[in-house]
Protein 1
Amino acid sequence: MRRSLQGSRGCDLSRAYHAAFCGAAPRPGSRIPHKSASCGQAASPAGTRLPPTGEKPGHSPYNAPFTQIAFFAVLVKVFRGLPNAESRAPCALTIGNFDGVHRGHQSLLARARAAADARGLPLCVMTFEPHPREFFAPEHAPTRIALLRDKLDALRRNGVDRVVVEHFNAHFAAQSPQAFVENVLWHGLHTRWLLVGDDFRFGAKRAGDFNYLREAGRQYGFDVEQMGSVSEGGIRISSSAVRQALAGGDLEHARRLLGHGYAISGHVIHGRKLGRDLGFPTLNLKISHKRPAVNGIFVVQVHGLADHPLPGVASIGVRPTVEDAGRVLLEVHLFDFNENLYGKLVRVEFMKKLRDEERFDTLDALTAAIAKDTLDARAFFGLTAPDAAAGRRDFATSATDRIS
């Protein structure tokens, strides 16, 4: 199945994934069952049952716009802004930021998927870039759990057919509740069924709420339902809880909240070649926002380069040691692996936090700390260190550490 990715506003940026990683092509005209991240288990079709923990996140061959993807695949239509008139079709809709697409989100999406199937409608998600709190108060905005690429892939894995990525700006924020209902929900998306959370607000000054939507639905002819928060063990599952777990280095708790290990995906970019000059190159991924939910030095495993995850050690943060540009990079040193990876799409899964970024007085002190990080990461995987007598230095200079 081959689809072109068109570039106009309201375009169909279809993403392909299935047979390349799951080994089976869909029947023509059929709907592929919604798979778990491992592509081996059907997702819950209905209700608000909490998705199981421990699912392994899938990997999507996700290319940039204006390319073609030649895999047999489930297609997710992604629109930048409201679809154009030719692409509009009645839909079941849910709205939210969906940062991290955690288990609470997954329960909401399962309920929405079941409602869409019962009505014979595609399931559409409207989400926002930037996060509304980044627009209103950037200095107090939350950290980002997921890049847009990872959010879209997670929505796809949870059975979403269409995603509208709405640019959140002053014009959008100033809409009255009535304008939002008429221009966005009705004329823009042809909403026939809508599911919102119990804290959902919309319109200028957050004047619109569930009761407003329910009355508007009666007027325009669409059904509106509300879903409460999802909790486990008395703990509310939320993006804020995931951020708190990641900030504290508690990756196991983050895994329980997300339903899978925390990971960041992206294409490998060219760095400053400092690691290569030392004989130990790093795999570099650019982080598109300046406030990632994780920061420091981590044990990681990298998916997408072999038929099994590759072990390594990674640093994520700004590069104060070598530059002042403020770029946020994820840099990974893979153990016993040295190939040309530029342009490859990879997924870096965080296994354990080793330490925060630190300030060092000398390069030797920095080098010693990173060498210890490498040994600790190897021990995590049960790997032996290379023979020091052979003169090999198995470490890469971390970009997140500082030299005074």
Note: The first strand starts at residue 3 and ends at 4.
Protein 2
Amino acid sequence: MKKQKEENSVSKTNKISQDNVKDGSWGWVIVASAFMAHVLADGMLFTLGILYIEFLNEFKEGKGKTAWITSLIPGTMFTVGPITGALTNRFGCRSVCILGALVATAGFAISYFATSVYFLYCSLGILTGIGFGGIFLSTLVCVGQHFEKRRSFALGISVSGSGVGTFVFAPVVRILIDEYGWRGAILMEAGFVLNIVLCGAFFRPVQNKIDKTNDKSAIRNEAIHLSSLEDKFDIKEKPITNSQIFTIVKNENEGLQAFKKESALSSDSTDSTVTSCFSRHFDFGLLTNPIFTIFVVSNYFTALGFNTPYVYLPDRAEEKGMSQFDSAFLLSIIGISNTFGRIIFGWIADQKCVNRLLLYSMSLVICGTANVLNPFNDSKVYLMMYSAVYGMFIGVFVSLNSVILVDLLGSERLDKALGLLMMFQGFGTLLGPPICGWLYDGTGSYSIPFYFVGGLVIFSGVVLCFIPLYRRSKTRNLYDISGE
């Protein structure tokens, strides 16, 4: 009876230590927290097209110049990827997410006092973008670290919060603007973003399967359990040969050297500054990897066209006679279909028979085609159908990005690769909306901008075909060398 209690105590201790390992129960708490963080952050980000119309009316600037406000947030968010990646490595996902939420909140709150588009460039664009960068990367990395078997599905659920946020906040932002003006609405958005601090508080770091413990009772129970095993099994001492002694001494010496190196690294890490931390974690050597480079090129061109519908679709709809509420509702349609797309593609990508890279590539081609076809009809039903198709298939861009990276490079390089990838995505999202705005200012029509971004996104999907081609050529070369 006593032994049974001891075994139950040991198993309970083991169970507690297993809660926070990969694919453990706490991982789903992380998923829920990341989901809510995306609801709040992306809900603000992807409804900027509604505020964009207000900025045009307030500051009387051109569409291209005003579009810098909406492009600076995602542009900065992605461009600071290597920095947030280094900070995540150094301080953990929880700290980076909370700090990012505080910085983004400050950016929204300060924007209340904006007197020009240049003011909003700095406050809403750069400051909020830096904060969102910390939130975005920390959520992806934290979920990716807590899952292995169902990583695609977990990431799909977490980032689907983006679509939910867009669906919910598109009409909410419109109502807030109608009631309190754009300044009052943007101040309330600061309050929404502040709640991400609570989401980040749940980002507990993942632990190894064998968990260290200082609990004396747990150690005592383990000792009693081992003692009972000695009674059950006849464990006798055996003489040690000279060769075994040599092996033990050799292994101990190697272990000592490894311990010294580890201690030195630990000491350096403790005493280093944040600047030296960046230099250690900026793995720009990844750009010499042809596979990663192709993926970066694809992401850059996707990012150039990614935000165009979110920024310009409401304005295009209003130009064609739709009401302000109906034009905002188009973003809600993108949001809800985006939610289904991210979850569905996340689940499909986890199936063993599915080629994730092909799924990713084909979805981008469909998104690009939808953009090219957008100007062909101006009816409300047609634009609603476009919004549903675009939202559904663009969901793959976020939900499978980190999963594809793991497939291409391995999970141990995820944070560094994701940081670099986000930087190049930042360049694309920074330039995309202003370029489309200038195209509109020059032509007086949204047709050319949508043709332009549609072609870019189609190219981003097609260029991924070079990855399997490169792998095959590399395998063929290795086979030829081995054959010789």
Note: The domain at 23-206+286-479 is CATH 1.20.1250.20 (Growth Hormone; Chain: A;).
